Amino acid sequence: MSLFTKAMSLATAAMAVTLMSSASFAEDGSGQQLYPLFTYRTGPYAPSFIPFGAGNIDYLRYINEVEGGVDGVKILVQECETAYTIERGIECYERYKNGYNGALTAAIYPHSSGLDVALTDKARIDKIPIVSPGGGQNIATDGRVFPYQYPLVFDYWSEAQIIVDYIAQQAGGYDKLKGLKIATLYHDSGYGRDTIEPLGILAKKYGFEDIQIPVPHPGEQQQTQWQQIRRANADWVFLRGWGVMTPVAIKTAARVGFPADRIIGDIWSGSEDDARPAGAAAKGYLAVSVFPPGTDYGILKTLKKDILDKGESDLKDNSKFGTVYYNYGVIEAITFVEALRTGHKKFGNRPLTAAEGQWALENLDIDQKRIAELGAEGLISPLKTSIDNHKGETIAAKIIQWNGQSWDTRTDWIKADASLFADVIKAKAAAYAKEKGIQPRVATN
Amino acid sequence: MSYFFETLVSGLFAGVMYSLVAIGFVLIYKASGVFNFAQGAMLLFSALTFVTLTEKGMPFALAFIVTSLVMVVIAILIEWLVLRPLRNRDPLTLFMATLGLSYVIEGFAQLLMGMDVHMLDLGIPDVAVQVGGIYVSQFDIIASLIALTLVATLAIAFNKTRMGISLRAVAADTLAAQSIGIRLPVIWRIVWSVAGIVALVAGLVWGSRQGVQYSLSLVTLKALPVLIIGGFSSIPGAIAGGLLVGATEALADIYVGPLVNGSVSTWFAYILAVGFLLIRPAGLFGDREIERV
Questions:
Q1: Alpha carbons A257 and A317: distance in angstroms, whole number
Q2: Fewer beta carbons under 10 A from the terminal one: N or C of chain B?
Q3: Any CB–CB contact under 8 A between B265 and chain A?
Q4: Cβ A277–B212 below 8 Å, yes or no?
Q5: Do residues A107 and A128 lie in contact, with contact meaning Cβ atoms separated by under 8 Å?
Q6: Is the ipTM of this complex over 0.90?
Q7: Are residues A281 and A172 part of one domain?
Q8: Ramachandran region of residue A398, left (φ > 0), alpha (ψ -120 to 50) or beta?
Q9: A276 with B6: Cβ contact below 8 A
Q10: pLDDT, tens digit (0-9, with 9 covering 90-100), for A216-225
Q11: What's the domain count of chain B?
């Protein structure tokens, strides 16, 4: 036997042993609820996923290990790495859409707005609920046309409204908005362009000047854009950044003399990793927050005691505990667990199927009383969904401010007026239904 | 009109920043005819190493020296593990090897130093100063001086030193250079080391502006049109290409962008590069290859 043949035989044997062992040790999921955790621990966006994923996992670990599961049903977390790419995300979806080793799939959280869009048609055919808290498609609010999309918690149109509301508060009333100049510096992508239309509507309604300035991806050079802002004499800047665009914007603003406390970042421009790299220039910078940072919430204290202090956290660096992305992970996991509880009330305490998950997601009702029971007062705002409204009836956010080291909360929840854009969104959904030949469902609940 | 000049000047300064990245590519291309796809990963690795060392309390100068030494070690390893086994292979094979190398370096950086976003403060104030009625960033002025110093140093090294002349000989005709006793592996090690140190300088300048994070390696995307326009084998070409790209994309964003309701700077530089490929394929200062057929 030649050396090559020997090596090949050994390699084959090793591979066979590995495959056999992985098959025999694969966790039996029967009786458990699958939570396919779409990760991006690699690639340029990994810094945001690592604390986010830890928040997700820590909460589910707490539910499993301390509370004994959701109404006794354990959650089986299966990670699938997407590296934040759509093609790998679709592979993960295909792998877990029908469950895993006996554990049932009730819903999939794709953790990517792009993937959420890419899965729209597939999810409709497969009848799998796709849930994207804070990052879903606004048009999918209309659950009659989008039965399987759940853009829970937040959308950018409501964000535009909340920004204008905050500026009105600061100016001394909505009538004071007239004549103000609000520039939106946006990431030149579908995500960034999403606020052009609502801001146009709001500008007409309140009489402020709406200035829209695009920044090409990734946004590492913004001198010309900030010169435009300075030249226009903008009063406020709404910064709709992503990744490096945010710290570069804050630094460039300082360079042209635009004050940081007149820049309000979007929810994806409002993490510690967005402000800290900008150094001293970021002091005073404002941001919209749907996932408020901090550790002074009941559920965070519980997680610290039962998970973090016992060394069971997914965090490698405990300083990330209570950061914006960690808390986002916790909030998202809460929506999943509460959807399961809602489903259990109707279908019994057992793992839910995708059809049952869909029902549960559109009958969610996390009211103030339930928020208090969860120990999440101040961390989340009430969330009530229906067939008509897959996002939630009340959309709210806080404004936070960077003090040079961490975020301070500047306001309580600012609620968006859901009726303002409701007709526009419904009209868009109806046009989509017509284009795709979809017969909208009739709301019965 | 002052707005036009202000835009033009800020574009030119941005162009110098692009040139800093492009120089690293030029060095390796000159020595081996290879487009080093891993230059962005080297830039990320060096900046991440530097910032990790300074965060652990190492003084700036010492961290710079230690990181430079790390880049030299990486260059030696690359020559030994990647380039030497692929000697005399097709340039496309070497290009593919550098593509793989970029993933290895990025993965290694992530494994060793994590994925956190780091703030990097070089102590250079990033404030605007008024020069002739135009606001100019103090940081940009200093970054440009750094780039000019780097170019001058490299020009002297290539034209006046024995190593530089050897490098030019290898670039002109590899086989002939080897036949007169120039050792190719040594040249490669030196060139990759210098490219690593250039990557460190570029990484520090860019990292100081946007934070040291994984996406830092994406700044190399800006270097490609710069190289096509300036020429792959010319350091002055990298500077000229950078200035041209920086100025045109800034002006295009202001004057063309509103016509198409969007930002045009990303693709405008590539349009310009395609134009050069059609009219002057070797770029402004690149070597025009003449092949006997």
A1: 36
A2: C
A3: yes
A4: yes
A5: yes
A6: no
A7: yes
A8: beta
A9: no
A10: 888 888 888 9
A11: 1
